């Protein structure tokens, strides 16, 4: 039972840490897409 609990905590913290990083990457990608569209 403890192993499952620790595993769930690891997933939870990895989501909390990675979510802001992923959102920053998606914002950068949206800006790049807009620049490409504006060039055409």
Would you give an account of this structure?
Helix content is 95%, strand content 0%. It has 40 residues and is mostly helical. The mean pLDDT is 78.
Task: From the alpha carbons, calculate the radius of gyration and give it in angstroms.
Answer: 17 Å
Detail the poorly predicted runs: none
Question: How many E-type strands?
Answer: 0
Mean pLDDT: 78
Secondary structure layout plus pairing:
Layout: H1 2-39
Brief account:
The protein is mainly alpha-helical and 40 residues long.
List keywords for this structure.
mainly alpha, 40 residues
């Amino acid at each position: 039972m403890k192993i499952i609990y620790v595993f769930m905590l690891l997933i939870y913290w990895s989501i909390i840490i990675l979510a802001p990083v992923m959102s920053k990457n998606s914002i950068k990608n949206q800006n790049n897409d807009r620049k490409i569209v504006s060039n055409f």
